[in-house]
Each structure stands twice: as structure tokens, then as C-alpha cells.
User: Fold this.
Amino acid sequence: MNHAELFKPIKVGSLELGNRIIMAPLTRCRAGLEHVPSEMMATYYAQRASAGLIIAEATMIQEHNSAFIAEPGIYNSEQIAGWRKVTEAVHKEGGKIFLQIWHGGRACHPEMNDHFETVAPSAIAIESEVVTLNGKRPHVTPRELTDAEIPTYVGYFKRAATYAKEAGFDGVEVHGANGYLIDQFLRDGSNRRSGPYGGSLQNRARFLFEVLSEVISVWGSSRVGLRLSPLNSYNSMKDSDPTGLTQYLSRELNSFNLAYLHLMRSDFFGVQSAPIMEVARHEFKNVLIGNMGYSPQEAAMAIAENKVDAIAFGHHYVSNPNLVQKIREGRALVEPDPSTFYTPGAKGYIDYPEN
Assistant:
């Protein structure tokens, strides 16, 4: 099939992208226990610099906020310096890269965070186990944040955005998906609080909108994107009306004039389904990036039919650093080795063939 639609340049915010193949944020746990981006991470991202845009992995905005043991952070000078090596390596290869800024909320565990308490919108635990330094443990019941504390967490996002700029990124993506802190506020299955941050759609979205306002104050709206996953049940997430949530957010986000909305179209586990892509396309006026399970053929067709403007590829970017070239040439894609997704070291990380 002709994949020409994927190779049409596109303007995303103030950035001109050479193609519409986006590298989705992929947690790979190669930053070590100090959460400092490594030289190996610089190699990994540089290998994938032909993407129209790289969205780097979920990155901690606050100390003692680990949900994956060895994910990177962006809250101190050593991390800024580590990320700067990454951005310089990507830019040297002609690529563009955003940083995804993230707080895990109730997905964090005290055993990964010097026994600091876990916080969330409501005192509701994730109904599963998490891998800690001491093996698998049940998720803990988080402490409900007070209204007075919430501006501090908005401030952590603003600081992370500032540090991302210092590190040389081209912009930032706010992580509002997959059952982490912002998503926990958005969905009524995890947000049972009252007051200004709970109850109505407007109140549940207040934290997200405050975060976006502060991040935009650092970067300008044309360098800020947002990722959402209204259907994904990962981390025990659910919402009574995902379509209504998508419609409300997609419409209200227009006032922020974001560079893009990055929407995960389905559920990892197939628990819920709803026409959220169609709803977002109808309501959201800027660039819409689709994600989850697109083949190159479906991606090209979705763009041709104006269902989306670009596609973020995830697991195929693990094992095909040259994904853009392979799609252009119609070559077979290598499947990744899941056993190396989160392991330390180069195996399954920077040793996939680059041609």
C-alpha cells in the first residue's frame, strides 16, 4: 500500500515536522535508581531521530514520585544535564523531541520512594500489584490531597516545564493518561472528592487546566501537547461516561490552543469501547494524534480520511529504530522482545538493527 500520507510534512504548533510518524512515549527504565538520563538513553533516542517528533518517556516532576523504579526525572540539575545530552544527540541527527512530564499519583509506592507517602485525588487504591525494589507488592491506599496542597503539584509541573526548556527540548507533553495523577483527577472512578476539584466534569478537569496554564506560561501554547486515555482501564481506571469526558475536554482544550492532542483510542484490556476518536476530531480544532495499535496501513488511511493528523507508534519503535525508513520502503517490521522492555542494559534497547 502507498503510505504517502504519512510522509506529508505537517505543522504542529510552531514546529514544522517532516513526517507524520510520531514516536510515542515509552517507559524503558534505563535511568537508574537516581533517575538520571544516561548516555545509553542519548543513543537510543538519537537512533530514532527520523521520527517526525519524538515524545520522550514519562518523566518524574517530583522527587519520591517513582512508579517504575528506574524511570528518568526532571527535578534536579544532574537530570537536566543528562537530558541535555539526549536532546543534543537527537538534534544532531536532525530530530525534534518533546519531554512528557508526569506525576504517578496513586501508582507510586512507598517502597520505591524512601517510604514517602503516596497521594492521589481520593483515597482509593489501584487493585493490583506493582514491582518494587523488594519484589511485587500490592498498591497502597493513597492519602487524599487537600485542596490547599494542589497548587504545589501544579507548581511541580511548571518547574518541570522550565527545566525541560533548560535541557534543550523542543516542547513538552503533559501526561494526562493511563491512570496517573492528572488522569486520576479526570475520571470519576478515581476521583470521588468534593469541593473545587471533584464532582462535575468542570471540577475534575480543573487540575489539568491549571497545569496546562502554568506549563503554557513557560513554553507558549504552540510548544505544549497533551496525552489523554479516556478508555484505558490500566491502573484500575474507569469513567462512567468516557465519551462525555472526551467531548468536554476536547472542546474546552481549544481555548488553550495546544500544539496537539495525543489521544489513546482504546483500552489495553478491552474493558471499554466508545467512539472517542470521532468525538475528539469533531470538537478539537488543532492537530490530533492517534495512538494504540495502528498499523502503517491503517495509519495512512486514517490520515487520508481526515480522522487524525498524525499517528504515534509505540511498540514498533522499540524494535525498529529506522521505522520511518522501513515504512517508506514497505519493509517488514521487527517485533520487540517484551522481556527487555524494562530491564537495565543495552540488550533490547540500543541493539536493534538501524537499517
